[in-house]
Here is the input.
Amino acid sequence: MSESDIGLWSVPLAMLGGAIRVSTPFIFVSLGECLTERSGRINLGLEGVLVFGAMAGYGVAYETGSAWIGVGAAAMAGGAFGALHGWLCSLPKVNDIAIGIALMLLGMGLAFFFGKPYIQPVAPDLPAISFGWWSDAPQVVAALKVNVLFLAGFALALAMAWMFRATRIGLAVRVVGDSDDAARALGLKVNQTRFAATVAGGALAGVGGAYLSLYYPGSWNEGISSGQGLMAVALVIFARWNPIACFWAALLFGGAGALGPALQSVGVTQGYYLFYAAPYVLTLGLLIATSSTTRQLTGAPGALSITR
Amino acid sequence: MTARAGVETIGVETIGLTMRFGAFTALDAVSLKVRPGSFHALLGENGAGKSTLVKCIMGFNRPTAGSILVGDREAAIPDPRAAHALGLGMVYQHFTLAGALTAAENLVISRDDPPGIVNWAKERAALDAFMDRMPFRAPLDVPVNRLAAGERQKLELLKQLYLGRRFLILDEPTSVLTPSEADELLGMVRGLTETDGLTVLMITHKFREVTAFADTVSVLRRGRYVGGGTVADLDHGAMAEMMIGDRQIAPKTGRTGALGAPVLQLEGVNAADRSGLKEIAIDELTASGGEIVGVAGISGNGQTELVEILAGQRPLRAGGIRVNGKPYGATRAEARAARVRYLPEEPLRNACAPAMSVAENISFHDFDIQPDGARRFWLRPAAMTRHAAALAAAFKVSMASIDSPIASLSGGNVQRAVLARELSGDVDLLIVANPCFGLDFSAVAEIRARIMAARNAGAAVLLFSEDLDEILELSDRILVMSEGRIVFETEGASADMALIGQHMAGHA
Here is the structure.
């Protein structure tokens, strides 16, 4: 088969492949944010964590020669940022949103500072599994090359949904996120639970960052993130704080992000930059469409500072 | 009183229990005894020390002096966990269940040793077996915040029994229930004390519940034990005297004046409720000058939304509001022209800017209006303060200074300050929601007298209240709201409490 055989089919195919590629960092950041918000706290600093995780993952992978050690380092760096956020917010009269913005800027600044030496060198890539072996069409093969982290993200979404439903830790996180009073009445430690959820959420965002620098786009530079960390916050609201819905929403956002490149590949050049803005337009559109002045947000954790 | 085999029946006794917060003595050497297997009522006004007493028993407060005996043995209760280990449990006035979780999830996570991984098949079987042993059930698979208040209160009770508590403290358990729901719940509790050897200490201020369900009663006033005994030996008058002492209560204002022309008219009003899933549908509602129209209903049946509709905070899907015959959209200009005033529930949150001063809060209606009605650009702080001070004095607002932030005032004084603002000048329509929630006896009497005075001066008053006694005391006409609709209307003078209760519960 030659390229012309699949014709315009290459657009949805490229979008599917793009969705899988682009969505992975969304999956990790939004699952991290979902966990943190379910405990009743918002971490807006995940954008900074993502960028720092990308730098740390790339740097460590280059120094050690192993992409997986890089991913571990990114998770640890993300966890450290989460710990800082969690600790600061456990102090009295501290606003989690303001701290989140400060940490976002700090994370990006530190990443640019420490990341300077790693812009040129080439670090090892994360492995991908090819599901397109049955086809001869190069587009199909390219689209179905799925990174291991994407599959891990899917498994993680299922695991997190199960955790919220059927484990003590999951129920405890939900109680803490629902009401401080109810949690205290049960003898749950509100601050410790939120701290742990923020650390874990930060670690997941760090992994999302490592995917950016170690697989797609696959190099470290200062413009590596295009706001995925911030858009993940909107995505969690759109997904109504449900991990599995987070996964599908991340795919949708990924697909929107892949629209521009896919159209470009078939030669559509008009309004090219506009298509690149699709994920942002989608964010805005979804938030407006799913909000209401007269209804309460269903599914929102009751202790979250935006719903109080 | 035969306890179930193998289950202990425990009583609790306090000896000289004293609790001081700084210079303030909340409890002054209180000694009282709750016999094993009895239903004991604890009566008292707001601030009488009832909550402090039970918090000491439950280990939330460490008493300054005195001791607590559990099952005739002196017990050290440093924290709630220790109280639970002794078999003591408490059902709080506010709900302590996590609303987003289902009943089953709430019960399992509230155990002292929740399993790390919940085997739901096994847990469900155990919960069903537990429910079968109980005199009443609650739905297990619905998120708790979708349950009605009565169901939730039952679930709170079930939770304590599920956790194996033998001595239960109930803190005003019926404050959010209809009369029939309250009777049902307390009847069940009473049954548990008789057949299961449960011991109950109930905080309340409703005499009716004391006489109908309790064996013994203790009365607290200003932190002291002032009397008690067997319920059968006491009548309501004796209990009221112990509770209030010999204080003067503002006399009830009588009803005067004639019914005027219709002021507020709603027709075919339809709007979404807070969840967006149900609708608020008011086919017809009229309030005329010189009458108080009471709107009764259990919280969450659309009263809050109707107040929001009247205050312009909730868009209408259909229908219209007219005040004095003119269409009314509740803008500031319209409210001023039609002389509509509001006293929403929780006034500190809904009718005040908490950090601004009392003077500024009282001036919200007219700070930018000159006496001739023209708009003012430069404020006149001195005149504002003088005007506010005069109003505050007339409404007996007690505060450190007229310049203190209004958030520093007590609940009753915030209510008085907002009333001072809303009732100044001529009023054609007054919309009031839960005006006496959380206020003490004397403040309640005074606030109600002010509302009655506004009615007597010719205003139409629309009174929303979850307190049925308040509705019955004040209203000329009573409407009952259920599921977002007005389901019943009756004259205030001839109102049948049982019938109203049935309509509130949607059982008529």
